[in-house]
Design goal:
By secondary structure, the chain is an alpha/beta fold. It has 6 helices and 5 strands, in the order E-H-E-H-H-E-H-E-H-H-E. It starts with 5 loop residues before the first strand and ends with a strand.
Length: 161
């Protein structure tokens, strides 16, 4: 039987370093890297102005991405997804992707506190001025309200960093 690829995905508050870590891991694991930010900005340029816009377009993207990831995994290639896994509902979507095709997965939980994340967000605003409108303390406080730390009871293989 053909060896399936492994799906790697992340959980961590805004600013925890998920995108940076996903790029490093993709190289390390010789994996295909899929970034939600890149997909959204390519498919819906200048259409995401609010958090509600993000939720709407992210939901439209998911069925297509799910099928693509399953196809890549099924030919034995690893996939690193820079998509948020910060709520139980989001993590269930990743789990469904692998369970439907019986592939392996790894959730990397970047467990940083609020102060560490806010410091990194401030640094990112300086390095990427185009993100300054979204990378604010107000946005961090808003999205952190929805954050749910992962639990083994969700059926996940979790590595905490």
């Amino acid at each position: 039987m053909k060896q399936l690829g492994t799906l790697y995905f992340f959980c961590g508050k805004m600013g925890a370093g998920k995108s940076t870590k996903s790029k490093q891991l993709a190289i390390e694991k010789q994996a295909v890297l899929l970034s939600e930010d890149e997909w959204l900005s390519s498919l819906y340029p200048n259409q995401i102005a609010t958090f509600e816009d993000y939720l709407k377009f992210s939901a439209q993207l998911k069925p297509m991405v799910k099928k693509l990831v399953q196809n890549i995994l099924s030919v034995g290639t690893n996939v690193v997804m820079d998509f948020p896994g910060n709520t139980q509902k989001q993590r269930k979507w990743f789990l469904d992707i692998v369970l439907e095709i019986d592939a392996n997965h790894q959730l990397i939980y970047l467990n940083l506190n609020n102060e560490q994340c806010l410091r990194q967000i401030a640094q990112r605003r300086n390095e990427q001025p185009e993100r300054a409108a979204f990378d604010t303390e107000e946005t961090f406080i808003y999205v952190t309200k929805f954050f749910e730390a992962p639990k083994a009871s969700e059926g996940l293989n979790i590595i905490e960093e």
